[in-house]
Design a protein that fits this description.
Elements lengths: L10 H12 L4 E4 L4 E4 L5 H11 L26 H10 L13 H6 L6 H11 L9 E4 L8 H8 L4 E4 L1 H14 L22 H9 L3
Parallel strand pairs: 3-4
Antiparallel strand pairs: 1-2
Helix pairs in contact: 5-6
Length: 212
C-alpha cells in the first residue's frame, strides 16, 4: 500500500488527491473535529474500503458531500419539498468557511469548559476571522455547545451562534415518532448513561447536568 502526504495549500497536491479519489482510492482529510476518510460515493468498491479501513459496521451509514443541489436527486429516492425550499433559500447565497478545531473536543472531554487555557486556544483559532464579515458561527460538533459562552467571548465581537445539536434532537424525535417509539408520558423519566468507554461515564453525567 502506497501512502502519500499531501498539503491542502498546494494546488498540485489537491489535484493529486482528486485523482486518487477518481481512481477509487481513499484520502484522509481534516474536518471540523477529527480526520475523516474520503472516497468516491458513487464507487461501491471505494466505499467498502472505508468500512474495512475503519472497521465500521456495515449498518452505520456514511455522509455524502455534494457541491451543488442539482447533484442531490440521483443520490436519493426523493427530495422532499422542505429540502427544496431550504435549498432555494440558502444554496449559493452564503460563503461557508469550514474551520477545523483540532483538540477542542478533547478539551471538553477533559472537563475544560472555561479558563485561560481554553481562552488562549480560542483566541488563536478565531483571531483571523474576527474582522471578517462573519454573521453566524455554527457549532458543528456535539461537544462545542458546552464551550459556547467561551466561543462567544473570545470571538471578540457580537455574533449569532447556532447550536446544530438542536436540529439533531428534533430529527431524533421525528425518527422515534415514525417508528412509534416515542413515549406519550408527560412526567419525568429516568436517564441511563452508556458509553463504549466506561472511564468516560462520569464525564457523560457531568455534561448532561451542565447548563450552557
Amino acid at each position: 500500500m502506497e501512502t502519500l502526504v499531501l498539503s491542502d495549500r498546494c494546488p498540485g497536491d489537491i489535484q493529486a488527491a482528486g485523482a486518487i479519489l477518481r481512481r477509487g482510492g481513499l484520502v484522509a482529510i481534516p474536518t471540523e473535529t477529527v480526520y475523516g476518510l474520503a472516497a468516491n460515493a458513487l464507487d461501491g468498491d471505494a466505499v467498502k474500503k472505508i468500512y474495512r479501513a475503519k472497521g465500521r459496521p456495515s449498518d452505520n451509514p456514511l455522509i455524502v458531500h455534494i457541491s451543488r443541489f442539482s447533484q442531490l436527486a440521483p443520490l436519493v429516492r426523493e427530495v422532499p419539498e422542505s429540502a427544496q425550499k431550504l435549498a432555494a433559500a440558502f444554496c449559493g447565497h452564503a460563503n461557508v468557511i469550514s474551520l477545523p478545531c483540532k483538540g477542542l473536543a478533547e478539551m471538553v472531554e477533559r472537563g475544560i469548559f472555561d479558563g485561560p487555557v481554553l481562552d488562549a486556544y480560542l483566541q488563536d483559532l478565531l483571531l483571523p476571522f474576527r474582522y471578517c464579515n462573519i454573521d453566524y458561527i455554527v457549532l458543528g460538533c456535539t461537544h462545542y455547545p458546552f464551550v459556547r459562552k467561551a466561543i462567544a467571548r473570545n470571538f471578540g465581537r457580537p455574533v449569532s451562534i447556532i447550536d446544530g445539536s438542536e436540529g439533531t434532537a428534533r430529527q431524533l424525535r421525528r425518527q422515534l415518532e415514525a417508528a412509534s417509539l416515542l413515549t406519550d408520558r408527560t412526567g419525568f423519566g429516568t436517564v441511563t448513561f452508556q458509553n463504549s468507554r466506561p472511564d468516560k461515564l462520569a464525564m457523560s453525567q457531568t455534561l448532561f447536568q451542565m447548563k450552557y
